[in-house]
């Protein structure tokens, strides 16, 4: 990832990808199991479906609990906004109309396996990062850059976990 000087209002994004020696359906079973995502990165601690649901569909919501040494502990409610089995799974954090972030997994058949991409966008809605920027507006670009690098590291770790799980025979 290179320095872009992005501001939060620019809705900066991060994307990582990997190839997995497994079918898109096998990979889908992992990426769409939100409760399984906890522990795949250093930040996400637990996830649970809300309103008694147990599987993804557009409009369904889940609660995520996270921890970060600089931000402490917090929870967010996310709403599934993209759900095409074997192809795409995405959710908006907070208000789906003005999310604090959007996350997405995209699966594509490739070379008898699956190319898995994880993508995320900051904003446009306010998040915990907004409070740090409010306190230090002169450091906004650095704050955004550092946070995007953290997301990139955690997303890379998440994809490695998914790859390992999907490739187990």
Automatic annotation (TrEMBL):
* A matching Pfam family: Polyketide_cyc2
**What InterPro entries does this protein's entry cite?**
Polyketide_cyclase/dehydratase (IPR019587), START-like_dom_sf (IPR023393)
User: Which domain of life does the protein's organism represent?
Assistant: Bacteria
Q: Which SUPFAM superfamilies match?
A: Bet v1-like
Q: What is this protein called?
A: Cyclase
């Amino acid at each position: 990832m290179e320095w872009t000087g992005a501001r939060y209002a620019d809705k900066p994004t991060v994307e990582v990808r990997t190839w997995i020696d497994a079918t898109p359906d096998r990979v889908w079973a992992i990426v769409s199991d939100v409760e399984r995502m906890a522990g795949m990165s250093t930040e996400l601690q637990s996830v649970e479906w809300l309103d008694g649901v147990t599987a993804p569909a557009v409009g369904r919501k889940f609660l995520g609990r996270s921890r970060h040494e600089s931000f402490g502990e917090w929870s967010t409610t996310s709403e599934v906004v993209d759900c095409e089995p074997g192809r795409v799974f995405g959710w908006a954090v907070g208000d789906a109309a003005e999310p604090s972030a959007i996350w997405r997994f995209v699966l594509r058949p490739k070379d008898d396996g699956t190319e898995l991409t994880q993508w995320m966008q900051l904003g446009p809605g306010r998040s915990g990062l907004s409070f740090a920027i409010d306190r230090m507006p002169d450091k906004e670009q650095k704050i955004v850059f550092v946070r995007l690098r953290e997301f990139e590291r955690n997303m890379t770790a998440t994809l490695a976990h998914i790859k390992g799980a999907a490739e187990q025979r």
